[in-house]
Amino acid sequence: MTALTGGTGTGTRAGTATQPAPDPTVPIPTVAEPPAHTATANLTRLLCIAVAAAAGIFGLLSLPSYFAQAWQPSPGLAATAWVASFGLPITLGLSARWGSARILRGLVTAEALSFVVILGFWLVVRNGPLPAGGDIPWVITLTGVPCVAVAVFAGRRLVWAFTVLACLLSGLVRFKTSADADPALIGLADGLYSLLLVSVFVALTLAARRAAARVDEATLLTRQAEEHRAARVARRQERLSIDALVHDSVISTLLMAGLGRTRQYVVSSHASKTLTQLDALRSPPPQPVVLVSDAARRLGRLAHQIAPDAVVLVDNPARAGREAGIERTVPSAAVTAIFGAVGEALRNSVASAAGHDPIRQVHRAVTILSTTDGFQVTVSDDGVGFDPALVPPERLGIAESILGRMTRLPYGAAHVRSSPGHGTDVVAAWAPDRKPTSLVELVETPAGRSAKHALPSDHTPLVEPTPPADPIEPNRSSLARSLDLTTPMARLILGLFVFVHGLLAIIDIVPGRPLALMLGAYLAIVLSGIALMRPLIRPFPRAQVAVALGLSGIGAMLMFGYLPASTDAPFAHWHLGAITLILVVLAARGQIRSAWMGYAVLALLAVGWAVETGQSALVGVDLVSRHAGTLLAGTLFVGGLGRSERDLRVLNQDDLARARQDATTVAAIRERKAQLRRVNVLARPTLLRLAEPHALSAAERAECLFVEASLRDAIRGRALFVEPVITAVNAARRRGVQVTVIDDSGESRPDSPAALALTVADVLDTVARGRVTVRVLPADRPDMATLVVESDLHSILVVGADGALRSP
After folding, report:
1. DSSP letters along 756-796, please?
2. What is the pLDDT of residues 546-583, one digit of tens each?
């Protein structure tokens, strides 16, 4: 009697499930693997390319200084230094797309060390001042390139330590080579300005890395959630599909055999077909398509086998006028689902449409309709009818074999319409060319009644909606929106901005000029920088952009009004660098167009100042062109990051789709194997005996009914299909107790399944006769289950969340 106990062994009450262990040969991912394309990897490649672009820009700008300052005792060594300074970062950019992380890190390390060595050479060997007017060494124009390169790979502390070291050495070199009367002050100012300028780009790089890490984390979490959701849906689909097959084939065969009302050769034939269906599910063949005419003929044969008196009507308006040259086809999966629903509807009609009057004449019709919108079949009878709302939930025929089966079919729908005394209509449809809200419409049935082919409102949809993306995370993934200028580091950089430019303004005071203009320009530029430090509101406020640009413009005009036509001050035009930094930050916050518009206005003001002071317009162009590389580097960085983010979004969507598909496939295979193993353990031995034509004894018929009841328990009482409940239920049924087990918990399992199983089994062991109905309650209820005992004493018992039994 192994088939009756489900292979549960001795039946000890350990609370373990009878469902087989997962097949180790079919793994299912529980934690998503990282996607093939990550934001961090894309950003690393982008930053390497940006470093190369910056090296190219500043390398070209440094060529005049290099040729003027080349070390004549050894021109080859000077050329080697220049090639190392600019060649290594360019090699880094060229290697970004194919080089491994180890190769890229090696290039960055070589770049950083060579830069320090070259600066050390200038300090130790070339420690004399350079000619006046050309005393800025070409090498310090490169200071930001190795610092940003290190920021691409290194940790935060190491990045800032190297940045401070590089800027300190740069200031010392400037001190050693300056031809000014106070070289120490020049070196200090130049080093601080380098630290300010480099810090902005280093901070941008680190902010981008943090944003990329957040994107990767969010992507991985989303991927995991989608894989789990897809696997959960696939498992449920597969389980319900197997349950429908079990109900239509296995349970029907066992009932026919157990009740003894069907001829033995028919039972044997059904058992053989059922075994074939179970075997076929182990490796489902590819799903072909079926011609509508073939589907109609097969439906006719099916109707004749189940209800010989049913009238089959074929209504195909798409071919009625003979204008269609090619016959429509329907996927085999859709035909199979519709056949199953129609077969169940016909069996229900034959069994129940006449009611308790055996001589009542019931007229049945099967109407097949094929249009350009799909394929549908309507089963109608004029029998006694019923109230669908009063059908007990444990009756699986309508809920699973008709409605559930069609709901699981993509583009499928079904509806059961009936009322007492007015017959029944069952409609099953497949309509891929219509919107889900109008998948199946009102169709006039042969009996003159209309049936709305929609799912009833209380039927839970199988396919879960994809959860919406976090509306905050996409904004965080953008550098322009992830750059938080309210952090301590941002405030420190702002303080450095204020201090450095205040120092430069003091150094470059021009005797005899109105200090009020210079002070006003300084305050306007500082306020412009502060205006960008406000927390970012999305979208970027135009008023905030206008304030920043307006203050910068005022500062530029005041400084140009303050400066004479010529001056020997080393940082006389400090305001141009300050405003350029503000424009870089503005571009980094997504306002690239506004930043370049501000730069164009700044260029016009410089040219106007040059012409107004009697100089050539080229003088003004030369002043602003020195800062074009800084803004261009920032713009290329931000623009490249935006393109990288868009490409990454597409790649992540593709990876997510593949992850869903993989999770669905693996979960479906695993669930199918587990469910088939359960069915085979419970029912295959009995089905094999039934497939052999022979007269069944009373004991064999009783065994069939026991197996049928166990299969129903596994389908409608899944949460309680565990030991020791299975043993207790079988024992109670052998004592003559009618036991019904219903699971209303859905996909949420009870919090204490072992305690629940022990309590239910204990109650069942105490009932000697009558009926017991066990119902697992939905997950949102405070209690886990109820037991209705109809025996010598009728009682209703409740199982609490802790597994304790009490009266309500």
Report:
1. HHHHHHHHHHT--SSEEEEEEPPTTSSSSEEEEEESSS-EE
2. 999 999 999 999 999 998 887 777 788 899 999 999 99
In this prediction the pTM is: 0.60
Long-range contacts of 58-67 (CB under 8 A, 24+ apart): 58/86, 58/141, 58/142, 58/144, 58/145, 58/629, 59/85, 59/86, 59/142, 61/141, 61/626, 61/629, 62/138, 62/141, 62/142, 65/134, 65/136, 65/137, 65/138, 65/141, 66/138
Cα distance between residue 444 and residue 372, in whole Å:
18
Q: In which element (H, E) is residue 367 found? A: strand 364-371
Q: Which residues 6+ apart lie within 8 Å of 622 measured at CB?
A: none
Report CA Rg, the chain. 40
Q: Which of 681, 586, 673, 682 is nearest to 634 (CA)?
A: 586
Cβ atoms within 10 A of the Cβ of 597, count? 14
Tokens of 401: 């074999």
CA 473 to chain centre: 12
d(CA 86, CA 103): 17
Distances (CA, A) of 59 to 52, 67, 85, 144, 629: 10, 12, 9, 12, 10
Indicate the domain borders of the chain: 286-467, 480-626
- Give Cα separations from 202 to 209, 329, 487 (angstroms): 11, 62, 15
Q: Kindly state the DSSP code that residue 748 receives in the 8-state scheme.
A: S
Work out whether the CA dihedral 498, 500, 504, 507 comes out positive or negative.
Answer: positive
Please report the pLDDT score of residue 114 as a whole number: 94
> Does domain 286-467 match CATH 3.30.565.10?
yes
Distance CA 139, CA 534 (A): 36
Measured CA distances, 666 to 20, 25, 29, 191 (Å): 17, 11, 8, 60
Tokens 């055999």, located at residue = 257
Q: Please state, rounded to an integer, the average pLDDT across all residues of the chain.
A: 80
**Residue 589: CA count within 13 A, CB half-sphere:** 27
Alpha carbons 203 and 607: distance in angstroms, whole number: 32
Over the stretch 119-138, which tens digit does the pLDDT of each residue have? 999 999 888 888 877 788 99
